[in-house]
Amino acid sequence: MTPRFDLSDPAIVRDPYPAFAEMRAAGRAVWDDELDMWLAFRYDDANAVLRTRQLGRIFTPREPDDVWETFNWLHQDALLENEPPKHTRLKSLVAKAFARGHIEARRPRIQELCRELLDAAEDKARDTGTFDVIADYAEPLPVLVIADLLGFPMSDVPLLRPWSQAIVKMYEYDRSDDDNRRAEQACIEFAAYIDDLAKARRRTPGDDLITHLAEVEAEGEKLTERELAATVVLLLNAGHEATVNGFGNGIVALLTQRDQWDVVVDDPWGTAATAVEEMLRFDTPSQLFERTATRSVDIAGVTIKQGQKIAAMLGSANRDPEVFADADTFDVRRDPNPHIAFGAGIHFCLGAPLARLEMQQSLPLLAERMPALALADGARPRDTFVLRGWDEVPVAVS
After folding, report:
1. DSSP 377
2. Cα(117)–Cα(130) distance, integer angstroms
3. What's 26's domain CATH number?
4. Taking each helix axis from N to C terminus, what angle separates 225-256 and 177-203, rounded to the nearest 10 degrees?
5. In the chain, count of helices (H) and strands (E)?
């Protein structure tokens, strides 16, 4: 009998990896009545789900439309929620504008922001004995970086994270009515804010991504106003959620397994690249990615009928012992490390290079500055399954 995977079970939300192992051992794709979709737990199957062209990212508008109007169009016009030919058009425009940001050239600015945040964290630790590595370091860094890249006024940065968190809550399967209301209100406020900012950039262009998105053109095509707003919302949400959670999950793993933290401390810059990839693999920040069959297709040992959904279970795939030796062991020197934390295929995360750069700077700078860092009491995980992370991780400097 195939075991049942219940992602609303608090024990599974807290630690899904034992259940993932059971599901991988039970077979290939498994049907879930509660979610009304197939789930692919094995690496090869999840990877195939992401790469198979007969499986699309198809957004279903929420009803009633007069309640969900802004939420619906922000998703209908977003790169992530579309397939070719619209996906191809949007990606060519967004990638062209995004390339102008010269991600690698932002390295000095990212290091500067890291040092400023660490200075403030040290001051807080001197006063209280601890600081929160999420709220004081992992969370503000990518928000500041993406805001700087997009051209948001720094005075408005505190608006962005609450909007983003309200919207991405909609990707979970155990939402409340209040969660729904907060998400739509955040969409309305965020979209209006971006529209005003884009109009200002069209009048007075700057050297920022919103200006580039407003001006970019490819083969006579430009982004519509709604597509521009949807793109900016997506870039902010995707551009920092994975980084915050990937870094936070990885820091908890490092500080729980002190031998691995010591490896990083001994050679912070030499281990940064492989350590970051292992942080993303070992406790994957985005656990599930849905696809819908545009026509019937055989995959993962089953037939997915047209209109049915199948989800790539990314966290499970990244612990598959058929691909990763000692898959449940956290090894900051692991190489090669072909994890799929950023997805695969045409929906591979456009912001992956920026997320990697941020983590590859923030980790060694933290290790250099605070080699005796240790977990303190009061760590509090998020109560969400799809976007896996921590709300609070207090740490002591010495």
Report:
1. T
2. 14
3. 1.10.630.10
4. 120
5. 15, 12
pTM above 0.85, yes or no: yes
- Rg for the chain, CA atoms, rounded: 21
Q: Is residue 295 part of a domain?
A: yes
Residues 45 and 27: their CA atoms lie apart, in Å, by 11
For position 321, what pLDDT does the model report? 98
Among 343, 341, 368, 357, smallest CA distance to 278 is for 341
Tell me phi and psi for residue 124, to 5 degrees: -65, -40
Query: Which residues constitute the domain of residue 330?
Result: 10-396
Task: Write down the pLDDT at residue 330.
Answer: 98
364, part of any domain:
yes
Q: Strands of the chain (E only): list them.
A: 30-32, 37-40, 55-56, 130-132, 288-293, 297-299, 302-304, 309-313, 374-375, 380-381, 390-392, 394-396
Residues of the chain with pLDDT under 70: 1-2, 96-102, 218-219
Flag whether 232 is in a domain: yes
Does residue 1 fall inside a structural domain? no
How long, in residues, is the chain?
Answer: 398
pLDDT given for residue 174 in this prediction: 82
Q: What torsion do the CA atoms of 165, 171, 173, 176 make, to the nearest 10 degrees?
A: 40
Q: What is the pLDDT of residue 218?
A: 62
The total of structural domains in the chain comes to 1
Enumerate long-range contacts of 350-355, CB under 8 Å, 24 or more apart: 350/79, 350/91, 350/94, 350/95, 350/98, 350/235, 350/238, 351/235, 351/238, 351/239, 351/242, 353/103, 353/104, 354/103, 354/106, 354/145, 354/146, 354/149, 354/239, 355/142, 355/239, 355/242, 355/243, 355/246
